[in-house]
Amino acid sequence: MANGLQNWVLMVTAQTPTNIAVIKYWGKRDETLILPVNDSISVTLDPEHLCTTTTVAVSPSFENDRMWLNGKEISLSGGRFQNCLREIRCRANSVDDEDKGIHIKKEDWDRLHVHIASYNNFPTAAGLASSAAGFACLVFSLAKLMNLKEDQGALSAIARQGSGSACRSLYGGFVKWVMGNDDNGSDSIAVQLANEAHWDDLVIIIAVVSSQQKETSSTTGMRESVETSALLHHRAQEVVPKRILQMEEAIRTHDFPSFARLTCADSNQFHAVCLDTCPPIFYMNDTSHRIISYVEKWNRSAGTPQVAYTFDAGPNAVLIARNREVASLMLQRLLFYFPPPPATELTSYVLGDKSILKDAGLEMRKDVEALSPPPETKDNIPSQKYAGDVSYFICTRPGRGPVLLADESQALLHPETGLPK
Ligand code: DP6
């Protein structure tokens, strides 16, 4: 190993996107292997706006496996981390880095320890599927470091054991998680339906909804739903299989009305399953419900869906507009109902692709104040505004899958010590 030198550090840095399900995963048939009760489909979000960056390092001088998330050390003792680490280690191969004079034999990996540093470019606490991007990035970067020969599908099956939705973050664009049949989970993998260029008209605006409520975790919530909700079983057996076929067809043919109807219906059914759980789980709040009503009213008055909405295990709304023009109109509506609090600049209230503000003619606060009520609202009822109910918006689009970052300056670990920078 490394010519007898003990002070070398070998590192890999990768960036992995998050994803939003348009046909939801909710319920496991195997809790340890994380095998779902139905297929699901997601859209990968542009990593420029929402992603996890992870650096993994190996050195003979490391005494333990250690991990830091957003600069703070976290425990790796949990079963999910251990399962991912074990599955990757047992597939590791020899590594030869001639430039650095580092040679690692296949069997060395059993004794070597790794350091992992992960950073989300969005607030972890905002409830934006950080575990999906996080586990996908951990598996992708460790697989590169340990020179795994497995394809992306096999890596997705490892990421799945960290967090189910993570398997879909191994690809860009539109992704299906095939539930599989095998008891060992080998065929429960993600497959790419289409890449991010396939339907690049779509614009996604996320409303990060203010909430004090402590939410039930997805893991606990879905366990309780499997145990108590009859609707969950009906959904998994009768509803989702048909919707998966219809959604695949809608994506293939760029059929936005079908895409939107299916996305909204599936989000609503997932939240209906949560209500059907004993005790019931409430992920959406009044703000979420208001956003649904505004979109439904607009879609109805337009005669055909303009915008799709979907909500995961929390109150944040993910709104998918059919194109940029519609997204500008949507932002006008959203800022009319949810204007920024008095001291907040527009540019710190609308994050991600801020160029949407210019398209919407909203460059200054006074432009927001001048917005008139959306035409679909009834003239005789004065529209109420809800400043403060949305923390901020993020404008994004469908994006690419994981990439390696070759530039060592982007690494989160120090190249000599292997400790966080
Ligand atoms: C509502 O993947 O977070 O976002 O597998 O227990 O880690 P675990 O759950 P997780 O659940 C995600 C549920 C969802 C729907 C979805 O992403 O499909």
Describe, in plain words, how this protein is organized in 3D.
By secondary structure, this protein is of the alpha+beta class. It has two domains: 2-195, Ribosomal Protein S5, domain 2 (2-Layer Sandwich), CATH 3.30.230.10; 203-396, Alpha-Beta Plaits (2-Layer Sandwich). 31% of the residues lie in helices and 21% in strands. The chain is built from ten helices and 19 strands. The strands form five sheets. The protein has a six-stranded mixed β-sheet with strand order 8-7-11-6-1-19. The chain has a five-stranded mixed β-sheet with strand order 15-16-14-18-17. A four-stranded antiparallel β-sheet has the order 2-5-12-13. The radius of gyration is 22 Å and the shape is globular.
List keywords for this structure.
five-stranded mixed β-sheet; binds ligand DP6; single chain; Ribosomal Protein S5, domain 2; Alpha-Beta Plaits; 421 residues; globular; 31% helix; 10 helices
Chain oligomer state: single chain
The top level CATH class name of the largest domain = Alpha Beta
| Low-pLDDT runs | none
Strand content: 15-25%
Q: Which hetero compounds are present in the coordinates?
A: ligand DP6
> How many independent structural domains?
2
The shape is globular
- Provide the structure class: alpha+beta
Order of helices and strands: EEEEEEEEHEEEHHEEEHHHHEEHEHHEE
Count of alpha/pi helices? 10
Task: Determine the mean pLDDT.
Answer: 94
Spatial gap, N to C terminus:
26 Å
Helix fraction, binned, reads 25-40%
**Number of DSSP E strands:** 19
The second-level CATH architecture of the largest domain is 2-Layer Sandwich
Strand count, sense and barrel status of the largest sheet are:
6 strands, mixed
Which fold name corresponds to the CATH topology of the largest domain? Answer: Ribosomal Protein S5, domain 2
